[in-house]
């Protein structure tokens, strides 16, 4: 989009449709805010646009602008407070369309570096009675009627449609970010529980063995030496558990390194941290949508966790390969295996439910092959983009 509609209501609605599609492509709140502001400025062919998200302390938690250079924005200084017309829009949740914002009795001036603005239109972005933010535009690029505002009633109607859908997009983005926070919190809680179980047991055994060695050192030096050797073994195992937990707690570098490099790094570290041999191979994998890459990574981590912590595997092989337009992940181990039907009947899941949910959530599929004493193979396919 490079210029406003300028072709009547039909063209304006088509422009709004394009803006809505652009908003729907983003899941991060900051990206959605920026897309709303850019779309609004282009939709109404205005020189400046801004969107403020209020905080609970009379200021703005976020304030996104378009049409103002980065240098000027820095020169303007701190974010504005909720006063004047901005406060009126947030409190009354009513549209404002002014011929000259500087002549309005609520106008309280602006910083020295602030650009000069005259005609002005602003609308709240609301979800029911909850005002999520306020959208402001100034200086429409058109001839102004004498003493009138360049922004028209049609502009207000189009911007109102955009604001209504912006509320939906912003709410969805907030829910997405919240779900990610809950997922991370859940994963950390799970790791903390496992760390407590695994390392605490090792340290408890370590303490008992050290006490036994101290009691034997005078009367039975040979047995004391054996106990000291066992202390060294237990200490090494505790260190392995800690290293493994640190690897899983470290955020994956998907954005910076991509799926293949991230998986390879994690497998290499797990190979060093555990007595089992852990390998990784990839072939022909193309870049995938971010959600699919994250789902593949999480399923690989869960499968590796099961193989290394529960299956007593000596060998775990991770393979990631191209599959049509998408990719196929395969995690195979030679561990003790299990009967999937018996596990399901017993109400145990070994993370299989979450893995299947992750796969189906990105349009993919998951298969599990296992039998007692025969190891386990987990495969996940995603469709690509």
Descriptive account of the structure:
The chain is an alpha+beta fold. Helix content is 51%, strand content 19%. Strand 9 and strand 10 form a beta hairpin. The longest helix has 64 residues.
Task: Tell me the β content.
Answer: 15-25%
Strand order of the largest sheet: 2-1-5-4-3
**Main sheet makeup:** 5 strands, antiparallel
Helix content: 40-55%
Pick out the low-confidence regions: 6-10
Structural class: alpha+beta
Specify the oligomeric state: single chain
> Could you spell the SSE succession in H and E letters?
HHEEHHEEEHHHEHEEHHEE
How many beta-strand elements? 10
- Please give the count of helices: 10
Kindly report the average pLDDT value.
80
Distance between the termini: 23 Å
Whole-angstrom Rg: 30 Å
Shape: elongated
Task: Map the helices and strands.
Layout: H1 8-24, H2 29-44, E1 46-54, E2 60-66, H3 70-76, H4 84-92, E3 96-98, E4 120-127, E5 130-140, H5 153-216, H6 221-249, H7 254-273, E6 277-283, H8 290-309, E7 315-323, E8 326-333, H9 340-345, H10 352-361, E9 365-370, E10 376-382
Parallel strand pairs: 6-7
Antiparallel strand pairs: 1-2, 1-5, 3-4, 4-5, 7-8, 8-10, 9-10
Helix pairs in contact: 1-2, 1-5, 2-5, 5-6, 6-7, 7-8, 8-10
List keywords for this structure.
5-stranded mixed β-sheet; 5-stranded antiparallel β-sheet; 10 helices; 10 strands; elongated; 385 residues; alpha+beta
